[in-house]
Amino acid sequence: MTRGSGRRPRGGPIVDRWALLAIPLIAFLVAFFLVPLIVVSLRSVADFPKPTGDIFSNYGRFFASAANLRVLANTFWVAALSTVVCLALGYPYAYLMNIVRPRVAGLLLIAVLLPFWSSLLVRTYAWQVILRDTGIINTFLLDWGLITEPIPLIRTTLGVMLGMSQVLLPFMVLPIYAVMRRIDPEYTKAAANLGAPPFAAFRRVFLPLSLPGVLAGSLLVFVLALGFYITPALLGSPKDTMISQFIANAVQQRLDWGIGATMAVILMGLTLVVLFVASRFIRLRDVFGSLEES
Amino acid sequence: MTDSWRQPRRLLLLALGALTVFFLMAPTLVVVPMSVTASNALTFPPEGFSTRWYEKMLTDPQWSSGFVNSAQVAFLTAVLATVLGTLAALGTVRGRFPGKSAVNALVLSPLIVPVIIIAIGMFSLFVRWKISGSIAGLVLAHTALAVPFVVINVATSLRTIDRNLELAAMNLGADPVRTFRRVTLPLILPGVLAGGLFAFITSWDEVVVSIFLTTARFRTLPVEMWEQVRQVVDPTVAAVATTLLAVTTSLLLLVLVVRRQAPAR
Amino acid sequence: MSARSRHWGAAPDRPALALRNLSKVFGDVPAVDGVDLEVRQGEFITLLGPSGSGKTTTLRMIAGFTLQSGGTIEIDGVDMGHVPPYRRDVGMVFQNYALFPHMTAAENIAFPLQMRRVGRPEIKRRVADALGLVKLEGLGQRYPRQLSGGQQQRIAFARAVVFNPRLLLMDEPLGALDKKLREALQLEVMHISRQLGATVVYVTHDQDEALVMSDRIAIFSRGRIEQLGTGEDLYERPASLFVADFIGESNILRGRFEPAGDGGWLVRDPWRWQVGAAAAARASLEGGSAAALVVRPERLRIVGVDAGPGLATGVNAVDAIVRDVLYLGSMRKFELVLPDGNAAVVRQQRGGGGHEGRAGDRVRLTWAVDDGVLVADPHG
Fold first, then answer.
1. Is C200 helix (H, G, I), strand (E, B) or coil?
2. Residue C229 structural domain
3. Which tens digits make up the pLDDT trace of B230-260?
4. Best label site of A180, A236, B156, C143, fewest CB within 10 Å?
């Protein structure tokens, strides 16, 4: 096997023998991941309930319906709200992790990572148990006589928001924490030394230096929120329908593959556009790099 | 002692942090006590103690076959993803070839492409290939979703290896194959194991793709739970949820132990 | 320049900085252990010592980044006990400069002025002045990463002095630079500090840097000030074996001190060496106590062994064997072994007409009695 390829003089082979090891996975992902995505794209222009001459008739059908557009708008709205909630909770949390002793920071990290890796379905189920009309919160409030009939928590946007934010919070905390950890504590000390009280030092020095993490985390949360399926399906009402539910319904219940695939292509396109726009401001490698550190 | 003039601010931050930990952990943990309630309804705090919902889960053929299916699929997925992912990590970290960044993007993209799109794509294709509803189809699908975690973990441990260790081994007379077996592999082993465990967890917890690729005769535990969660209100589902959670958490703790063993620094 | 000096040189009678019995304990390890130090207005004082000797901890306590475990810090006569760092009005140049990476050089320099709510036009003027002071006009719009190490160092210096702090602290500010640049900047930092009339507390582990720049040097060892004085004091009249060993090269002869008249003798059979009156008075040792005689390498002369016992009065001697002769350009360095097995060093200027010893030669080393410094020998 060839070693030390980095030091090899220019003009060596363009592909070395190490590279061959990547071929099985590339072939696998092309066959079982890329081809399915291509099939979805093709079905959006080839699968019609009634044959028409126009290959884009699914798209015409899609955009003609105000209900479909509402699903799009609602998905964006819920994704944006989740991002804001995650940022509001995640930034102070990451900041706390950064200033406490390493041992405590380790515990706080575990508190983020355990839910990060535990089943999304289980967590959503837990929210259902807590939020439903006979759930923990309503039972508690009724028992104490604070309310006379259950307040609607489940099948509301609020319920969806709570469930989604809890699932997505780690994706906000981890990139922000990764960036904060790399900020030299001497900067904050220097700011204090130059006359900045704690809040001014934070606002003028620490906050701007942590912004790359905030951008990375927000991007990640927003993009992932766009594709949520389980949580809105179990915690939301029909009017909270998000894109993924729409796709699943189209394929499974309405058996309208064309419209489902069309929505899938739109979701894919939206995800790519968000990533592309974001790549102008931040390096995407940093976003996924922070995941690698987790 | 230090920073005494900032105490109130710190306390506020600590309170907020505690609240966030509660928000992150509490909902999941609520499920655990509910699974051992003696009552027929999901009340909190649970009334009495009983293991009857676990007994029901184990005796109900739907649940128990789901458990076996899940374990099989997750194990096979972990094996396949670990082999493919470790090889690919070696290839992309050590290798030299054009389009490397495109390959890296391809390997990571299952993490970012909305899973519903992957699900309907695979469904549409696997039905045609006649592997939908089979253990093979599900393993292939889960491997695509889990393999990024293997690549990430192995690549990270590969990058932390001091290349001089390998050069030293060769200088001491080890041929490339033996250098890999005696030096490189032991050093990346914690990364490989961690990647394999993550792959297992990914498959074990996967719902969306599984919903599309399973049938009433062949279901995994999360799919069974998904089917029942909207109809069944008795605490069996809580017992199933606790079981899923227990497996995941033990494997995660195992990851932490494995990582601590890492000899490379 | 004097119009800008709000603090500097304001009250010449009061010390600019006074540390009294200052101490810091980390866990149960004392890092600083009862430091007393007064720094005069406009003085350039260096804290010099090996790493871990407490000099940086002392500096960080003065800046307020670390709270002291005991003792007091007074700046301009005001106790700093519970004054947070941002109200201490003390400039600091950090070891790695700590220039804010998201601000330009000019924005970095403007920062302390903005924190003090100085008006915009004045900030502009003073930033320009400060950039001029460090000769970096025109580089204000660059970001720190676009500047060389030396330029970053100058910007850090400008940022630390632009608000006329009461005290200027520098923590190994030249440590990251290469030797040539470091020597040039030593002079520049020293000249600008003098020009501003700044009171400077400078931390370094580089003794040449300390000797070049400082009015006075405080030698730190194990959390204490071992000796405080001018460079000449420390070199010519070290007060302890540690200082003698730490500053420059030394030849150390160990023995017992026996007083005689104003001076005395250091006895180590079969040798005995005379101790001058001044040296004996400074050391003030009791008769019979373990002591050492310190002689600098350039004070020793090499003569033949056969020069005979008939030494002139006021001259001491010891025999040695030459181990190596090193040619160092302008001088020759002899490394020798004393009869007790300890090493000795002699430096000889070229053309000084000294002994042309070769490796293996038996020689005799002589020195004037007044060139020997007597110190206590704690290991004796």
1. strand
2. 3-236
3. 777 778 888 999 999 999 989 988 888 887 7
4. C143
- Verify that C171 and C255 share a domain, yes or no: no
Mean pLDDT along residues A184-207: 94
By residue range, what is the domain housing residue B89?
61-260
Residue A159 bridge partners (DSSP): none
Round to whole Å and give the CA distance between C69 and A26.
62
Looking up residue C283, the CATH number of its domain turns out to be 2.40.50.140
Residue range B152-173, pLDDT digits in tens: 999 988 988 888 888 888 888 8
Q: b/e string for C24-42 if b means 16 or more Cβ within 10 A?
A: beeeeebbbbebebebbbb
**Which one of C86, C159, C161 makes the best mutation probe of the A interface by having the most chain A beta carbons within 10 Å?**
C86
Residue C19 lies inside a defined structural domain of this protein: yes
* B176 assigned to some structural domain: yes
The beta-carbon neighbor of B1 closest among C67, C82, C84 is C67
pLDDT value of position C12: 61
Chain A contact partners (≥3 CB pairs within 8 A)? B, C
The reply to whether A178 falls in a domain is yes
pLDDT in tens, C288-320: 889 999 999 999 988 877 665 556 678 898 889
Residue A128's domain comprises 67-292
**B95's tokens:** 């290798």
Is C87 in the same domain as C36?
yes
Nearest to C212 by CA among C202, C224, C199, C226: C202
Kindly give the pairing relationship between strand C167-171 and strand C90-93: parallel
User: Residue B253 maps to which CATH number?
Assistant: 1.10.3720.10
pLDDT (0 to 100) of residue C307: 60
B25, part of any domain: no
Identify all chain C residues contacting A215, using CB atoms and an 8 Å cutoff. none
pTM (2 d.p.): 0.85
**Of the given ranges (A221-230, B21-30, C2-11, C14-23), which has the lowest mean pLDDT?**
C2-11
Helix (H) or strand (E) holding C271, with range, is strand C271-275
In a domain, A75, yes or no: yes
Number of domains in chain B: 1
Question: How distant is the alpha carbon of residue C260 from its chain centre?
Answer: 35
Chain centroid to CA A290: 14
